[in-house]
Design a protein that fits this description.
The protein has 72 residues and is mainly alpha-helical. The chain has four helices and no strands.
């Protein structure tokens, strides 16, 4: 089973020893707002890119059909 975006972000934060406060500051939002978004798992593409920048990563979004083949 694939991890959600929030789970991936949490895992990378733990590996890189980045706190929720550091991530919130790095993405220009309050810790509470980020915490709520992490619980809901609803991020905009812009928010994912900002979090990736703090983590030293890039974001790749793929659309796949039911056979697991890339659509775009």
């Amino acid at each position: 089973m694939e991890m959600s975006a929030a789970e991936k972000v949490r895992t990378l934060m733990a590996r890189k020893n980045i706190s929720m406060g550091d991530m919130a500051e790095g993405t220009g939002q309050s810790r509470q707002n980020l915490s709520n978004k992490m619980k809901r798992g609803n991020f905009s593409e812009k928010e994912l890119e900002a979090m990736a920048a703090v983590l030293g990563c890039t974001v790749q979004i793929r659309f796949m059909n039911s056979n697991g083949e890339v659509e775009l």
